[in-house]
C-alpha cells in the first residue's frame, strides 16, 4: 500500500499543474470569447445603422432620378413651338391680337 500511496501522491502535483493550465486556458478563452461577442454586437449595431443610411440614400437617389427624367422630358417638350406657346399663354396670361382673356382668380384659402 505504501507504494500505491506514493504513486498517487506523486501523480497529484502533475494533475494539479494540468488543472491550473486548463483553468488558465479556459479563462483566456472566456476573455477572448467575451471580447469577440462585444465586438460582434457593436458591429451588428453599426451595420444596422449603415443599412438605414443606405436605404435613405437610395430613396433620395430614386427621387433625384425621377426629377431628372421629368426635367429631360420638359427640355424635349420645350423644343416644340406649340408647347411653348401653350405654356406662355397659361403661365404668363398672354393672348393673341384680337383675343379676349377671361381671367377668373382662384379662391384664397382661409
UniProtKB/TrEMBL annotation:
GO terms for biological process: cell division. Pfam families: DivIC (PF04977). It comes from the Bacteria. InterPro entries: DivIC, FtsL/DivIC. This is Septum formation initiator family protein.
Amino acid at each position: 500500500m505504501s507504494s500505491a500511496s506514493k504513486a498517487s501522491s506523486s501523480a497529484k502535483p502533475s494533475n494539479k499543474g494540468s488543472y491550473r493550465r486548463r483553468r488558465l486556458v479556459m479563462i483566456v478563452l472566456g476573455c477572448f470569447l467575451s471580447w469577440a461577442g462585444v465586438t460582434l454586437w457593436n458591429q451588428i449595431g453599426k451595420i444596422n445603422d449603415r443599412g438605414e443610411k443606405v436605404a435613405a440614400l437610395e430613396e433620395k437617389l430614386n427621387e433625384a432620378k425621377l426629377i431628372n427624367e421629368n426635367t429631360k422630358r420638359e427640355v424635349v417638350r420645350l423644343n416644340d413651338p406649340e408647347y411653348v406657346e401653350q405654356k406662355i399663354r397659361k403661365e404668363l396670361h398672354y393672348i393673341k391680337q384680337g383675343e379676349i382673356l377671361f381671367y377668373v382668380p382662384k379662391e384664397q384659402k382661409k
